[in-house]
Amino acid sequence: MTPTSHPPARVLDTPITFLKGVGERRAEAFRRLGVLSARDLLFHIPHRYEDASTVRRIVTLRVGEDASVIGTVVSKGVLPTRKGLRIFQAVVQDESGLIEASWPGQPFLDRSINKGDMLLLSGTVRFYHGRQLMPREWVNLGADDSGTAEGRVLAVYPATEGLSFKQIRAVIDKHLDALVPALDEYLPAELLRETGLPGIQVALRRVHRPTSVAEAHGGRHRLAYDELLFVHLLQRRANAIARQARQGITFENRRDLTSKLKAALPWELTGAQVRATREIVADMTSPLRMHRLLQGDVGSGKTIVALFACCLALENGYQAAVMAPTELLAEQHFRTFSALLAPLGMEPVLVVGSMGAKARRAAAARLAEAGPVLVVGTHALVQEGTQFARLGLAIIDEQHRFGVEQRATLGEKGAAPDILLMSATPIPRSLALTLYGDLDVSVLDERPPGRQPVTTALRAERARDRVMEFVETQLAAGRQAYLVYPIIEESDKVALKAATTAFEALAAGPFAHRRVALLHGRLATEEKDAIMRSFRDGGIDLLVSTTVIEVGIDVPNATVMVIEHPERFGLSQLHQLRGRVGRGAEESFCILLGDVGPESRERLRHVIETEDGFEIARADLRLRGMGDLFGKQQSGLPVFKIADPVRDEELSELARAAAERLLHADPTLSTPSNRALQRMLTARYGRALELFRVG
Ligand code: ADP
Ligand code: MG
What we know:
Elements: H1 24-32, H2 38-42, E1 48-50, E2 66-80, E3 86-93, E4 98-104, H3 109-112, E5 118-127, E6 131-142, H4 146-149, E7 154-156, H5 165-179, H6 189-195, H7 200-208, H8 213-244, H9 257-264, H10 271-284, E8 291-296, H11 302-315, E9 319-323, H12 327-341, E10 349-351, H13 357-368, E11 374-377, E12 391-396, H14 404-411, E13 418-423, H15 429-436, E14 440-444, E15 454-459, H16 464-476, E16 480-484, H17 493-508, E17 516-519, H18 525-536, E18 542-545, E19 558-564, H19 571-578, E20 588-593, H20 598-609, H21 613-624, H22 649-665, H23 672-684, H24 686-691
Parallel strand pairs: 4-6, 8-13, 8-14, 9-11, 9-12, 10-11, 12-13, 15-20, 16-18, 16-19, 17-18, 19-20
Antiparallel strand pairs: 1-7, 2-3, 2-5, 3-4, 5-6
The chain binds adenosine-5'-diphosphate and magnesium ion.
């Protein structure tokens, strides 16, 4: 390519709609995939490849094997069976032989699969009048797919409704040659040299048009490194700004309220609570601004540690704020704090959205006074109407449920208040560094004593009646119970129907004489809160629920939880759910109910055999990657499209070290050798604009 035909870099900013082959409808689908511009399109990379090493010659397939093949449809049709089930069948052929593929109950495929189409099929080979493949996964590659015919590699892209992987591939194929040269290398030459990674143009060609799967993975490696580097740069820079922006407050350890609180506590602090409190006190009494994450499993006792920090701020004449993700949790903290502060002669303030105007004004008036006050609330705390006269400490509970901006806004409500983030999702330290940058981390790895362990067991479907009888004995003893259904996506109508039907059956049948309620994500917030409040106050015996039950909710009288279809949950999710029981002095139970396969049984063992959240999180990460760990409520965490910070842990460590060095030498990335990197960061991450603004 001659220098004159080098396209200007701004073609990369072309909105996806304006690219040839992308109409308004497809653009909408692309946007759902996070692809807004030509640049994003380049970085939308395949999540899977098929080639000669994974695709088998049809002649070699043996009954009982699980395999992938690529073949052309030579005949097809729909077969009725005696039972009324209709089966779509197609015979596919490659250069080595033929095999029949069979899709029971999917006669409609007859409309979309045609003779002459090339199919990629993966599934088990069984014996049925000869070898027959039962496709588990399949892709129609279309009529003449030159991309795969000659034993080349087939790239499979993440697709979405209305935009197949094949259409995506066609669009990328059409534009790749024009777009790639417009993208200049942005990694500093030194970094490239030292990591031995390929240049960006080479890497992009390799991931989109590889000649072997190994080559594709080499390209992916470079892009995963970049993504990790970007996230580390953003995190470190954001944290550095937060720290250095203003000096923090230097609190004095007066041992006034904190000592009184300690004396008034009905129990001793655990060793872990003492350690975490010391670390927080050390931060708060230093002139630097505190920026610390307090991590502890459900029930490890984070709230009381937070209250100690608040008392230190209060005894110095400052205000302290605790923000929780829901009104229910805010109220719960408010009650706890009210009870514990009463002997100290202090009274906290509650600020939530549903408060009446009068109560709101009264709360606002107390915050406007410069006196020491502890305020607990929801995101209503960061709304414009809420003003603090002298905020010295901002605490954010269940911090991953807030967006970056909400967390930052609370910090801006005062003059450099100290910041404490809290999270119940236990994650290994290396992962915490990737997700949160150079936050300081305190860990509560000890459970308060006197707590009964939760007995967890897996029970088969045939034991259902006995399980329900057991629940009834608990209710008869005055306890309360949860029954949880796996609705991970609240849009999942089928699952919601199942939960509703089960609720109706239980409420009319075995628990007709009990107070039963149904809680799910489609209910209005006020309705949800009303049900949870009623359960908390003992007005409901059995709560049938989807996964929306609050993580932090504390109902000590609830002693049994039955979880349906446990195999559909991540391990950490099960552990968090289970954390809602075993909060009182009574023995508690968690029953996983359903017929699960041997693999799931093996996986669920991790939850059954231990109550150590860190150990469970590690197993979860190893088995299912990081997507499951935080469920769907991870708005505050960076999104990884290419890298997986767990599986790519070593790469992440390299990227973290590089980010540290780069920012140490050039905090705004504005020297000539770093400027391309800075431009790329700001082009791809909106947040980078403010973080790396020069001057
Ligand atoms: P989480 O870390 O999940 O937010 P909480 O702060 O809600 O946990 O504490 C869970 C329960 O344990 C609460 O009922 C609390 O009163 C109790 N608790 C906390 N610390 C101790 C302790 N050191 N000894 C006994 N009970 C404690
Ligand atoms: Mg909590």
